[in-house]
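Example record

Each entry pairs one chain with its bound ligand, 6-O-phosphono-beta-D-fructofuranose.
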Amino acid sequence: MFDALKVHAARIVDRRIGSLFDESRAATFSAQVSDLLFDYSKTNIDAEGRALLIDLLDSADVAGRREAMFAGAAINETEGRAVLHTALRNLDGSPVLVDGQDVMPEVLATLDRMEAFARAVRGGGFAGAGGPIRDVINIGIGGSDLGPAMATLALAPYHDGPRCHFVSNVDPADVAGVLRRCDPATTLVIVASKTFTTIETMTNARTVKAWMSEAVADPGAQFAALSSDLEKTADFGIAPERVFGFADWVGGRYSMWGPIGLSLMIAIGPEAFRAFLRGGQTMDRHFRAARWDENVPALLALVGLWHNQVLGHATRAVLPYDNALARLPAYLQQLEMESNGKGVAMDGTALTADSGPVVWGEPGTNGQHAFYQLIHQGTRVIPCEFLVAARGHEDDLHHQHQLLVANCLAQSEALMRGRTLEEAKAKLAGKFDGAELDRQAAHRVFTGNRPSVTLAYPQLTPEMLGMIVALYEHRVFVESTVLGINSYDQWGVELGKELATALQPVVEGRSAEGHDGSTAGLVAHLRKNGL
Ligand code: F6P
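Structure tokens for the complex follow.
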């Protein structure tokens, strides 16, 4: 599927990205949705390469599958489910049919219930045993944590509700650290779990319920649940009026637009949450309507395929020059790697190309003082994705924001431009000479020609965050469709879960059931030391 692109890539392998720039390149190799600009001109993609990449979309019938997704077809074929997180942000309520039934009345009714509850929590109409709610603890993991946790941090400037805390890890240090900061009498606990069976979440939920029972007569009254299993939430003792359900066609890592976003809604308020949904909807409309060479999610996906599957760069760094997006890389790790980290295609046959890349990153400028050394001079090329806002939320410190932006733009320029041996020598002339000048200069050479893309936007508002998250969701969809992957299941997490259950009696010393020598040796060492 990538043959023609690989032939093209071999022809241009030594071409400098910088040599592609004429007065029109920046404009022709960028695209825009509303105020969000996507610049991919600092890659080695030229007009021919882009045309070949767009051919991939047509041969994989991305347009057909995109419409099937929006129309509620069961495109999650291994689980026989529709994929309709887009319905959660379909604010105008136009019909979306699953098995002939319009799901929108239910979606909008749940949104209304969430809003009423969020208003009550924020306004004091819903209170704890000790008065108005001051803290909200969201207990969830994976998609039931990373989305709301990332977005709650990203939209901190818009917080005007109770403080929100996120507990995810089964490590008791996580829950204990949060409980130390909260008063049970004024805390609302939200148990977020699509399945309501996830061991980490249910263990933490029981721990928090026990903590609350010590101080509050009716702890269940200060619990809410976000789940698609309403029987299990009832068994846990959470009254139906505080249970916010969603259908199985909302995948865990795509779920923050619905009930799983409740903690975010309580933090920023229903109006700002709706703005977040509106941003997602704007991206959906663009994705469905824009032609491929102007379609930002499709282009972002094609750049990803070009770097990973065609050129073989196995990782991509996500580098937000926007500190509020500190958890975006972690969020994208689940979104992209749990979705597209698969070994087989939809029909069960082995993939003929590499699966999705390793995604990682940190906000700039912190990363510059940590791993950028390797990005600039390491032997492997790491395509970078920069995100940067024109304005922060600290108007009085705008000059400091300008320094941030200068750093962001400087990095992508430096990656592309590099520094030759001659330039390095010229900088050192006068300090060294002869062989020592050659030796010292060699350390200061940057090969350059390293690709990056940049997403630039006016400010990280709720609406803009919605656009960015939906952009990445659609990128995953496009990449998976070209690769033939089902990005909506996650069988790869099952084996570890099964073995953890089997090991529980062994680590507790109740069983000596045989495991491999290494595992048995580690258990013995830990038990000797207090396990
Ligand atoms: O890690 C596997 C997974 O199923 C994720 O896909 C999901 O987001 C997470 O566990 C949590 O699942 P749940 O919301 O059912 O607790």
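The first strand starts at residue 30 and ends at 33.
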